[in-house]
Amino acid sequence: MDQGSIARILKQVSGGEDEIQQLQKALLDYLDENTEIDASLVFSRKFYVAQWFRDTTMETEKAIKSQKDEDSSEGTHHAKDVETTGQIMHRAESRKKFLRSIIKTAPSQFSTLKMNSDTVDYEDACLIVRYLASMRPFAQSFDIYLTQ
Questions:
Q1: pLDDT digits (tens, 9 = 90+) for 4-61
Q2: Which of 2, 9, 132, 141 measures 20 to 30 Å from 126, CA to CA?
Q3: Range 139-147, long-range pairs (CB < 8 A, 24+ positions)
Q4: Is 148 helix (H, G, I), strand (E, B) or coil?
Q5: Which residues of 52-71 are buried (b: 16+ CB within 10 A; e: fewer)?
Q6: CA gap 29, 40 in Å, rounded
Q7: Where are the alpha helices (DSSP H) in the chain?
Q8: Distance of alpha carbon 52 from alpha carbon 140, whole angstroms
Q9: What number of other Cβ atoms are within 10 A of residue 26's Cβ?
């Protein structure tokens, strides 16, 4: 991954969100801009929003499950785990709120949500997709699957 390009995109995309959310917003804005050129981008946009919402839900469920497992096994690291679980839950809720706002946005309002039309080009969009895909659990554990 080209971390320099990712850092450049993050500088161009202003916002108080976390890094992943900023990249998601940049990618969605790129897809919105180019829906007139390629109608399949509307489906791509909906797919990404649904997938990210599902990922956030799964992350939350895993955090709750791990917290329950920790509660039943031992309580020595409990305070640290609760803080971590709380942070995961807070981050998940903010991501869900962001994705809900995207879902509720009518297609005619997409143009009002755009930041700058020249922020992300095709190459940057491809880089964002690869970067976000590398953050998914399957991509992170692909070496394990491959060796097995």
A1: 888 888 888 776 668 888 899 899 989 988 888 888 999 999 999 999 999 999 988 8
A2: 141
A3: none
A4: coil
A5: bbebbeebbeebeeebeebe
A6: 15
A7: 3-12, 19-33, 40-73, 78-104, 110-113, 122-134, 137-140, 142-147
A8: 16
A9: 22
